[in-house]
Design goal:
The structure holds two protein chains of two kinds. By secondary structure, chain A is mainly alpha-helical. Chain A has a single domain, classed as Cytochrome-c3 Hydrogenase, chain B (Orthogonal Bundle). Chain A is built from 17 helices and eight strands. Chain A has helices at about 50, 55-65, 70-85, 95-120, 125-145, 165-190, 195-200, 210-215, 220, 230-235, 255-275, 295-300, 305-315, 355-360, 365, 370-380, 385-390; strands spanning about 10, 25-30, 35-40, 155, 160, 320-330, 335-340, 350-355. In chain A, helix 5 (about 125-145) runs antiparallel to helix 6 (about 165-190) and helix 6 runs antiparallel to helix 11. The longest helix of chain A has 30 residues, at about 95-120. The termini of chain A are far apart. By secondary structure, chain B is an alpha/beta fold. In chain B, strand 3 (about 55-65) and strand 4 form a beta hairpin. Chain B is globular and about 55 Å long. Classes of the chains: A mainly alpha, B alpha/beta.
Chain lengths: ~400, ~180
């Protein structure tokens, strides 16, 4: 009898629970070791960029919610800021602070989803219950502000959709008070857990230069020791007003990426606390007659305002001829929008720079040489949402 | 470094390569006239020059300006983490003309260019793995071109899902079929 060594081709996904959506990985295996890996994406491609060419700016905001649906508000922020940059709109300070609160809440929600599912994939069942119970608090606040929980579309071009209530302020203060203890709880479950450390330390090491070369951004890049955060590098929406730090890792392995995200919880809570305590008073929408609908009070008094409200909501407003790129720090990394206007109410072209797309492209580099069980660790460790990869 | 210093550094090293430059909304946009090997050396210079260091290629994308000539505008969105500076490089491109791939300079261009190839139909020369990425291999047309209809070229009811093959990167060189259990059966 002769023994023959032969490698095996294995498809993981697109319906595998650990792939966080519809990612398919093609793996070439020798025993349990992965020799080569190739991700296949596109199973959730909905053609947002094509659809955006047929919609007005306000109609695109709900589409952006569905990019990274685990952290929706920050996607709204990225798109609104890009349109405002193209139109030259100055957003009032109060709206900027409210946007920051919503963006940081969504970042915490995204990280809580990551924490729960990442730990669950590796085999720790407990964290997901704590993470999701606390995620509910952030959802309640989002609902209080916008009326929606998962896909709020709270932001508008030039501001936010409605002013906050005193209940919102109370809930945010309560949240800020509760969260540090909750974060300590997450740390107690995992950070010094020997099984957790064995499964994540030294798994998927990527050094700083390679990480940048692969286009990694966000916590996955900072885990490798590069302190690149769009909120600090190119501050937008009053982020320069707040005092917060950018946690970075040293080794660039899964454990460091874990620690970076865990520290980001604390920093995001700090930002929310500062924003709610220093919330300026004033208007929540930019004073721009072309893009801001007149309020219902004015509409009932004045027929010109009625016509203007009707025109803005039905027709939209023209985007000027020009093009620009604007990036924000999404929950997963640099989320950018390249917007081209040609004087029409629809964008001529909208390109979404999705951080997850480039995170997935680095997966073969991270996976090769590891065991199949580590593939699961790595998919969780780089924190991808397929809605954003495929757009 | 600000926009003017960056521009001066590039034009000093490559006086012929930059066709024009613009600074809309405070962002530096360069339009290159360099082609082929010259284009690659400009891009390599942007990454390696010690004062520039555009080590992060954020994105590669294209705009279809049809019926204008040249039809496409290929964009490279670069960021220098060291200088915290953003640079957008434009490359005007007629239809069907292949562009040298920059995936040897930035790995992120690998998937960036695959997406442009898939959705815009711009071929890249020297790309290590130029396959469709968001659509399937037998898909016809390039969805982000302006002449591609919003609802696609055929009705979904007329599409025979049984003809869809499974995209595979390895099955050919492993001589093994790549199969997913068919949910329709």
């Amino acid at each position: 009898m002769s023994t023959q060594t032969r490698t095996m081709l294995l498809n993981m996904g697109p319906h595998h629970p650990a792939t966080h959506g519809v990612l398919r990985l093609e793996l070439e295996l020798e025993g349990e070791t992965v020799l080569r890996a190739q991700p296949h994406v596109g199973y959730l491609h909905r053609g947002f960029e094509k659809m955006a060419e047929y919609k007005t700016a306000q109609q695109i905001i709900p589409l952006t919610d569905r990019l990274d649906y685990a952290a929706a508000s920050v996607n709204n922020l990225g798109f609104c800021l890009t349109v405002e940059k193209l139109l030259g709109i100055e957003v009032p300070k109060r709206a900027q602070y409210l946007r920051v609160i919503m963006a940081e809440l969504s970042r915490i929600m995204g990280h809580q989803l990551w924490l729960g599912t990442h730990a669950l994939d590796i085999g720790a069942m407990t964290p997901i219950f704590y993470a999701f119970a606390d995620r509910e608090l952030a959802m309640d606040i989002t609902e209080e502000a916008s009326g929606y929980r998962l896909t709020p579309s709270y932001l508008r071009i030039g501001g936010v959709s409605q002013d906050i209530t005193s209940e919102f302020v109370r809930k945010v203060r309560e949240y800020v008070q509760k969260m540090p203890k909750a974060i300590d709880g997450y740390h107690q479950l995992l950070t010094e857990n020997p099984i957790w450390m064995k499964r994540t330390k030294g798994i998927g090491v990527i050094d700083a230069d390679t990480a940048l070369n692969y286009g990694l951004t966000g916590p996955s890049l900072r885990g490798s020791g590069v302190a690149y955060d769009v909120r600090k590098s190119v501050p937008y929406s009053s982020y320069s007003d707040f005092d917060f730090q950018i946690p970075i890792g040293e080794d660039g392995d899964s454990y460091d990426r874990y620690l970076v995200r865990m520290e980001e919880f604390t920093q995001s809570v700090r930002i929310i606390e500062q924003a709610i305590e220093n919330l300026p008073s004033g208007s929540i929408m930019a004073d721009n007659p072309w893009t801001t609908s007149p309020d219902l009070e004015a509409v009932s008094q004045n027929v010109d305002d009625l016509i203007r409200r009707f025109k803005i909501s039905c027709q939209g407003f023209a985007l000027p001829r020009g093009e620009t790129y604007h990036a924000v720090e999404g929950a997963k990394g640099e989320l950018g929008f390249y917007l081209v206007g040609n004087g029409d109410t629809h964008p001529y072209r909208l390109k979404i720079r999705s951080p997850c797309y480039y995170l997935v492209s680095a997966l073969p580099y991270l996976i090769e040489g590891h065991m199949i069980a580590d593939v699961i660790t790595l998919i969780g460790s780089i924190d991808i949402v397929l809605g954003e990869v495929d757009r | 470094m600000d926009n003017n210093q960056v521009l001066a550094t590039i034009t000093k090293a490559f006086p012929q390569a930059v066709d024009s430059s613009d600074q809309p909304y405070g962002q530096l946009h360069l339009t290159l006239s360099a082609r082929g090997e010259d284009f690659l050396s400009v891009m390599r210079f942007l990454r390696d020059e010690e004062h520039l260091q555009y080590t992060l290629l954020s994105d590669v994308t294209a705009i279809d300006w049809s019926p204008q000539i040249p039809r496409f505008d290929l964009l490279y969105i670069l960021f220098s983490v060291q200088n915290e500076h953003r640079l957008v490089v434009h490359l005007p491109l007629p239809e069907g003309e292949p562009v040298p791939s920059v995936s040897a300079i930035w790995h992120s261009a690998n998937w960036g260019e695959r997406e442009v190839y898939d959705l815009m139909g711009i071929p890249f020369a020297g790309h290590p793995d130029l396959r469709r990425i968001l659509t399937w291999d037998s898909f016809e047309g390039h969805p982000l071109r302006k002449d591609f209809p919003l609802h696609g070229n055929y009705d979904v009811d007329d599409f025979d899902f049984q003809t869809l093959e499974v995209n595979s990167a390895f099955s050919r060189d492993l001589d093994q079929p790549c199969q997913i259990p068919n949910a329709l059966e």
